[in-house]
Write a structure and sequence with these properties.
Layout: E1 14-18, H1 21-25, E2 33-38, H2 76-86, H3 90-107, E3 108-118, H4 123-134, E4 139-146, E5 161-168, H5 194-199, E6 206-208, H6 228-238, E7 244-247, H7 254-261, E8 265-270, H8 273-282, E9 287-290
Parallel strand pairs: 1-8, 1-9, 2-3, 2-7, 4-6, 7-8
Antiparallel strand pairs: 3-5, 4-5
């Protein structure tokens, strides 16, 4: 007699904050999220309208005057200066992103995990800076999301991957559920037992997954939408049913759509009216928290593909 599958976790709640993410997350209490996933705007060299905050010289928990030590024990501010010599956009992009990362670290629970999703332009800078901000011992993984879609140059190796940097708040306490993660087929199933072949293998740090298809159930029309399969694996591995999940570059709301379906409670933040509209259509039962009157939230239906 086969064992019935365990009952599905109750659907989680979703709260959406419409506003500047730094202003919003500064109101959240310390250590209140088990999982934080961030997919910020990639630094493509295009001008963006945004405020630039000067990063604090010390982390929130450090007393004034303490100098942070980073990569190979070097002083943090010296490290920032060195990176400026390699990237003339460093102050602009990281002046925007760094204070948000510091707030994310404050919000992360002792058993929590932070995922930062970037592309090739910033991933190497991010790794060095996050080692300095959070401590190199708290680095867990560099995930490579590889895909094969869209135009390909013939002048170099085509760029077909993103990087996701993973840091844990405490290397001795973080939650990671390898049994809860979706499995992958073995590339050589004949070399393992039939039982192992039927179950599949635990994914490695290289994830092959298509982008969101132009036609399909997931498509919302939001230009930077990420596939549910990528977020599902992250949520399954680094949170439990009932845990709180935060994404303050919410975009199309994929993090919350996946988290709620898996019984997690999701909090989203975005200041883009088009993103808020997509999320409201995609997750109709989400609670909206905003200081902007609803009649002033721009409707963007004409610019977005209809949801299936």
């Amino acid at each position: 007699m086969s064992t019935p599958p365990p009952p599905a976790a109750p659907r989680g709640s979703v709260t959406v904050h419409h506003g500047d993410n730094l202003d919003v997350i500064r109101t959240f209490p310390d250590a209140s999220f088990t999982l934080i996933y961030l997919d910020p705007p990639f630094n493509t060299g295009r001008m963006r309208e945004r405020s630039v905050e000067r990063a604090r010289a010390t982390p929130p928990e450090a007393p004034a005057g303490v100098v942070r030590r980073g990569f190979h024990g070097r002083e943090y501010e010296r490290l920032r200066g060195d990176l400026r010599t390699y990237d003339d956009r460093f102050d602009d992009y990281w002046g925007f992103l760094e204070p948000r990362l510091e707030e994310a670290w404050r919000l992360l629970a002792p058993d929590g995990t932070l995922y930062l999703h970037l592309d090739f332009r910033e991933a190497h800078y991010a790794k060095v800076l996050m080692d300095a901000l959070f401590g190199r011992k708290n680095f867990l993984n560099e995930l490579v999301w590889a895909y094969d879609y869209g135009a390909k140059t013939r002048r170099r190796w085509p760029t077909k991957h993103d990087t996701i940097l993973v840091y844990v708040k405490d290397p001795d306490r973080y939650w990671f559920d390898s049994d809860g993660v979706d499995r992958e087929p073995y590339m050589a199933p004949g070399l393992v037992t039939p039982e192992k072949a039927a179950r599949g293998k635990l994914p490695t740090d290289v994830w092959w997954h298509t982008i969101v298809p132009t036609t399909g159930r997931e498509k919302t029309g939001y230009p930077t939408q990420k596939p549910e399969g990528i977020l599902r694996r992250i949520v399954q591995a680094s949170s439990r049913p009932g845990d709180r999940v935060l994404d303050f570059f919410a975009g199309s709301g994929t993090t919350a759509a996946v988290a709620a379906s898996l019984g997690r409670n999701a909090v989203l933040v975005d200041d883009n009216p088009a993103a808020i509209e997509v999320i409201r259509r995609r997750i109709p039962d989400a609670e909206l928290v905003t200081s902007v009157p609803l009649d002033q939230v721009a409707r963007s239906d004409a610019a977005l593909e209809p949801l299936p």
